[in-house]
């Protein structure tokens, strides 16, 4: 699956002043490696395949329900010689209330998918069909209806997600400390923001603003909650993303560095070697993908 990822932008997909779009798709071949500025819900109606998320393969079958964030990259493909039928729902961050963000992502434990059967499957299918009709016929109150159905779908995903685990697979032990309850309620909101925007140029002041704290007090409370500093936490997320991207793409190391949020190649190569014991080029060369 080593290809160069495409970046899908909000301005390309969202029109008519509503930041949500639903499509019913039938895949007969791979949808190439990509990431996007928006969030994505994928519901499998029929068929089998694989969803490669951040370099990890997840088997797909009828009833699988995936939620991905702007921090994730993936490639989805049906089994060879078959087709994969699914609903694909994309939406921008503007569609998420603070309460919904906290509900969905405070449990950030590495589980991207849930599996629906019976009444849950039927309910999600009904709501997706309702959204499709609202989208097509543009009736009065369409935006309100779309927002309401989106919230119900996100709740259904959350209520059926697997139980919380203690550690996130592929995340360093220091990073996993952040998934325990923070000592200050604002820190949790800031953590979620950082996890979804770490590839951008996030300053301590911006992160503190998310928590409604002064930079100095935020820095103190952040380290108390996570066990590491804000800068080390941010660097860890960027390194994990870069490592996964090197393993699953043919992007030049320089581009991987920039995409992952590092300002200079020299700094990226130095911290990568310190963290993984090898250079980025060696990591890409050693990849088995």
From TrEMBL:
Gene Ontology molecular function: DNA-binding transcription factor activity; sequence-specific DNA binding
SMART domains: HTH_ARAC
Annotated ranges, domain HTH araC/xylS-type: 188-286
InterPro entries: AraC-bd, Homeodomain-like_sf, HTH-like, HTH_AraC, HTH_AraC-typ_CS, RmlC-like_jellyroll
Highest taxon, organism lineage: Bacteria
UniProt xrefs under Gene3D superfamilies: Homeodomain-like, Jelly Rolls
Keyword match Transcription: yes
Alphabetized Pfam families for the sequence: AraC_binding, HTH_18
Keywords from the UniProt entry: DNA-binding, Transcription, Transcription regulation
Protein name as catalogued: AraC family transcriptional regulator
Source organism phylogeny: Bacteria, Bacillati, Bacillota, Bacilli, Bacillales
Natural source organism: Paenibacillus whitsoniae
């Amino acid at each position: 699956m080593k290809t160069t990822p495409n970046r899908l932008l909000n301005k390309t997909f969202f029109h008519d002043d509503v930041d949500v779009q639903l499509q019913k798709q039938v895949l007969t071949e791979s949808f190439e490696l990509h990431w996007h500025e928006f969030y994505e819900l994928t519901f499998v109606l029929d068929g089998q395949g694989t969803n490669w998320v951040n370099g990890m393969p997840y088997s797909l079958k009828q009833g699988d329900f995936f939620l991905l964030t702007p921090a994730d990259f993936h490639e989805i493909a049906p089994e060879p010689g078959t087709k994969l039928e699914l609903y694909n729902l994309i939406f921008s961050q503007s569609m998420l209330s603070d309460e919904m963000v906290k509900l969905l992502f405070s449990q950030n434990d590495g589980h991207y998918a849930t599996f629906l059967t019976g009444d849950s499957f039927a309910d999600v299918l009904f709501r997706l069909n309702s959204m499709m009709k609202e989208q097509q016929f543009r009736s009065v109150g369409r935006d309100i209806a779309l927002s309401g159905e989106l919230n119900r779908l996100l709740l259904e995903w959350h209520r059926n997600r697997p139980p919380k685990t203690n550690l996130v697979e592929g995340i360093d032990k220091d990073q996993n400390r952040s998934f325990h309850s923070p000592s200050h309620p604002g820190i949790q909101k800031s953590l979620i923001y950082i996890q979804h925007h770490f590839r951008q140029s996030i300053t301590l002041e911006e992160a503190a603003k998310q928590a409604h704290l002064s930079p100095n007090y935020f820095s103190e409370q952040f380290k108390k909650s996570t066990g590491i500093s804000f800068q080390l936490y941010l660097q860890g997320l960027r390194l994990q993303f870069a490592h996964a991207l090197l393993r699953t793409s043919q992007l030049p190391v320089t581009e991987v560095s920039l995409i992952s949020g590092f300002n200079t190649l020299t700094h990226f190569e130095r911290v990568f070697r310190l963290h993984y014991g090898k250079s980025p080029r060696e990591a890409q060369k050693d990849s088995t993908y």
